[in-house]
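Q: What changes when zinc ion is included in the input?
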Amino acid sequence: MTPGLAFTFLGTGAPPVSLRRAGPSHLVEAAGRKVLIDCGSGVSQRLVAAGHRGADIDLLIVTHEHSDHLVDFYQLVVSSWHQGRARPWRVMAPAPALANMRAQYEAFARERALRIAFEKRPDATGLDVQFEELREGVVAGLGELAIDAFLVDHKPVEPAFGLAIALAGSRIVFSGDTRLTPSLERAAKGCDLLVCEVFIDSQMPIVAGVRSAQTVAAVQAYHMTPAVVAQLAARTGARALALTHLVPPAADTAALAREIRAAGYAGPLIVGEDLMRLDWPERLLSWNGATLAF
Ligand SMILES: [Zn+2]
Ligand SMILES: [Zn+2]
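A: The predicted holo structure follows.
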């Protein structure tokens, strides 16, 4: 059991294919619980690479219905069963995301029945799923670990949630996908770590046949630019800032860091990478064999 609070970046990407950044997914470990946030493309592989298994996840929270956050749901269920999962999944998501995952689950009902009958695995309960609607407020059943879901603004996708994650005096605020919004601002006040999505407008040129000026403006409108994120972190007095959900996933991260500095955030800055892990209360960052205090 992890003694403190650990936050692992499993996938720091977005819909564009990236070998470096898998689809959005993050793992929280605390109080003997493992909570998975989102299940983007590659989540099962990233869990294993990080030394975990889908079989051991206590709760999956999906923040909103965008495909990049839930596309690997069924793969996660089946791969976890093959790892020996022997208890039902607990899955929480806002209603539209829940409907999508129920539909994924239903689409494979015949496939699942064939597997159960033919593969003769010791236990089929690992394939069962308990779907619960995610609403504002504290998630029940996590012991000392407090996860508080708050509404963010990712319209027209709604509802969409951010999460405040706390254990024994350490508090992480996870933005989810959102434009700048007062609820995020309130939640982030004085947190130990603000984990923010970022849309790097300076690195999103217009490309004929891929995206027009209108596309860039539309996508930017429901995300946050580096300047917005930096100013948010500075205003709220976040003790550290981490960036994830990088758009574009192939971003120049040094240039991104310079933009954050130029926009007025001077505290500890972490540009998230897949498989990077942060630990409290030690305030250690571990990645790729290196460990740093932040
Ligand atoms: Zn997203
Ligand atoms: Zn989204």
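Observations recorded in class: The pocket of zinc ion (ligand 2) is lined by residues 64, 66, 154, 157, 177 (CB under 6 Å).
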